[in-house]
């Protein structure tokens, strides 16, 4: 009944309690409520005051609205604005890699990115780090969401490589102060692609392309199935998938080959 009458429950019970008693505010409440209802319950005292046909002190309007439970609906915060505010606190880095993909020393140059895996009308998000020289995937993380834990947990799995370079795009995750601090703890340096230049991060994009071509992720019914599929594929990619431009070796074999050459 309160919903139909467009009154608050507290206002109704207050009216019931004072039923039969003279209410000197009631006539003015009806004027306020008429304007409030026109605003579909979204008007505050300022909009009500501007909409009234008579002059009424703002203190009285506020008192009447509080007395009769006319509370304006508060708009939800715009999540995009919140992201933009946070982004203003973030840092970007110059492109130190500069598409120098023909590296011959393992554990010196890495690239990282995020991709999504669609399955059963849901999404899983994969974050991975790839050694540019050996093409080995050295760390990865899969989660059903794209929050900061996706990249932070992946970085926590990495070993420290002093003065090594880790390249990414300018995405929110990689400019985040917490991510930057964790890279510093690993004694690594950051490099970032220019805006709108996915080719600047081609090695990791290539890995994601092979992964999606090689596995049947769309047949998975649960997140756990996707995770098992990804885990098995990355092990196969590193240890079993021979590549022509790695002298027909697997990434792990080629890594050991390069380490022996550079010893």
Describe the 3D structure.
The protein is α/β, with parallel strands linked by helices. It has two domains: 2-67, no CATH class; 86-262, Nucleotidyltransferase, domain 5. 44% of the residues lie in helices and 14% in strands. It is built from twelve helices and five strands. It has a five-stranded mixed β-sheet with strand order 3-2-1-4-5, with helices on both faces. Strand 2 and strand 3 (137-143) form a beta hairpin. Helix 4 crosses helix 5 and helix 7 (149-156) packs parallel to helix 9. The longest helix has 17 residues, at 223-239. It is elongated and about 95 Å long. The termini are far apart. 25% of the residues are buried.
Give the uncertain stretches in residue-range form: none
| Total of domains | 2
Name given to the CATH homologous superfamily of the largest domain: Ribonuclease H-like superfamily/Ribonuclease H
Mean pLDDT: 87
Itemize the secondary structure elements and their pairings.
Elements: H1 2-5, H2 9-17, H3 26-38, H4 45-51, H5 58-67, H6 79-87, E1 109-119, E2 122-131, E3 137-143, H7 149-156, E4 165-168, H8 172-175, H9 177-185, E5 189-192, H10 202-214, H11 223-239, H12 251-262
Parallel strand pairs: 1-4, 4-5
Antiparallel strand pairs: 1-2, 2-3
Helix pairs in contact: 4-5, 7-9
């Amino acid at each position: 009944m309160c919903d139909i009458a467009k009154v608050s429950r507290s206002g109704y019970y207050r009216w019931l309690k004072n039923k039969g008693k003279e209410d000197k505010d009631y006539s003015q409440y009806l004027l306020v409520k008429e304007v409030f209802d026109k605003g579909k319950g979204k008007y505050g005292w300022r909009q009500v005051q501007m909409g009234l046909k008579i002059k009424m002190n703002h203190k009285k309007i506020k008192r009447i609205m509080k007395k009769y439970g006319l509370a304006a609906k508060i708009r939800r915060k715009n999540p995009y604005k919140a992201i933009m505010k946070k982004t203003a606190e973030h840092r970007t880095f110059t492109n130190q890699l500069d598409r120098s993909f023909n590296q011959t020393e393992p554990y010196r140059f890495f690239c990282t990115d995020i991709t999504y895996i669609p399955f059963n009308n849901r999404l899983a998000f994969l974050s991975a780090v790839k050694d540019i020289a050996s093409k080995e995937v050295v760390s990865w993380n899969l989660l059903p969401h794209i929050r900061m834990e996706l990249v932070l947990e992946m970085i926590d799995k990495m070993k420290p490589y002093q003065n090594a370079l880790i390249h990414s795009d300018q995405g929110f995750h990689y400019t985040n102060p917490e991510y930057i601090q964790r890279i510093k703890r690993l004694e690594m340096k950051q490099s970032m692609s220019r805006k709108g230049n996915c080719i600047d991060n081609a090695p990791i994009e290539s890995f994601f392309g092979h992964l999606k071509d090689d596995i049947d992720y769309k047949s998975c019914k649960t997140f756990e199935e996707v995770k098992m599929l990804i885990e098995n594929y990355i092990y196969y990619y590193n240890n079993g998938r021979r590549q022509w431009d790695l002298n027909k070796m697997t990434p792990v074999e080629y890594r050991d080959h390069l380490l022996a050459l550079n010893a």
